[in-house]
Amino acid sequence: MLRRRWRWAVVALGLAVLVSLPALVEALPAADRDVSAGELRERVLASDDVAFSGYAISTGGLTLPVSDALTGVADLLSDQTSLRAWYRGADDWRVDVVTATGETGTHRDATGTWTWDYADQAASRGTLPPLALPTAPDLLPSALGRRLLSEATDDELSRIAPARVAGVDAPGLRYTPADTAASVSAVDVWVDPGTGLPLRVVVRGGDTTTPALDTRFLDLSLATPDASTTDFRPPPGADIRSDQDLTDVDLGRQERADLPATLADLGRRGFDGVPEQIGVYGSGITVLAVSALPGRAAAALRDQLAATPGAVTDDLGVRIAAGPLALMVAGTSTRDGGTGTYLLAGTVTLDALATAARQIQEAAS
């Protein structure tokens, strides 16, 4: 089970998701503010200490060819998610996923997270590994907006029209990635003018006018929540588990070529604790992750991608696009006659995937 989870871990990199949900209140005209794009971004990045509580809603727009091993992640990327949030600070918050059958709450403290499933009366402890699958708290516009704007440059930023979000006249900011490999055409963020808190985030891919990703607050209070609301202690008799750390997975012993320092003109980045077989390239919203695959996982995943409508199969491997997210299984031959297989995934174009796969092959030969 863990190996199946791992092979899709890189799909999560660069992602937090969602598609628009119409709100009548947003049809009201919104007043703009005289603030530059660069200044608005700085306010967003400084908003991680802004306390709030609120209700947000998201609807995923991506369809991924994943197995039952990652049903939860697939749901986040394709279904509607309702979220209640209480935020006291970066290390002290709570986010509940609200469904028709119950709630699941995630509580953050100084050393990790507790996730509490009310229906199953089960708690799991997470320790914030460097490589992790996306979870519901990643969908909040406050967190997503800061993350996506964190590496945007001034040249990639511009002002757009304001919007009415959660009762606030929110100035708009557009981030247009400059990388030629980018599959995301724009990220639009609407910001609370007083605190810099992102209130709505829309990610657009390619030439389509339909947003690929969208998340927004419907209701928001800037009052500081009580500490008792975000605190969590497992109740007596609760089933307590430990979250799995994807960086501890055995990646197999097959010989593989060293990953290049640059792929598709995207530089490689380093993360403490992430295995050497996993490479992360790019910056901002343009991210490419490359991971070596064990033989059995490679064959099954290759077949799964090849059966996906629109798949491109050639001498480099098989690749698909799901909205702005692209996936590829690519094979290599090593200098000593061995072979290796890699999963490439990210917010890049199919052409960029092909270029990266070719560069991996050249490095191996």
UniProtKB/TrEMBL annotation:
This is Sigma E regulatory protein, MucB/RseB.
